[in-house]
Amino acid sequence: MNLRALVSVGGKPGLFKLVGQNKSGFILETLDEQKIKSVVNLSSAKMATLEDITIYGDDEELKLIDILERIKERGDVPSAKADSNTLREFFREVAPDHDEQRVYTSDIKKIINWYLIIRELPLFHEEAVSDDSSPEQAAE
Question: What is the pLDDT of residue 113?
Answer without folding.
Answer: 93
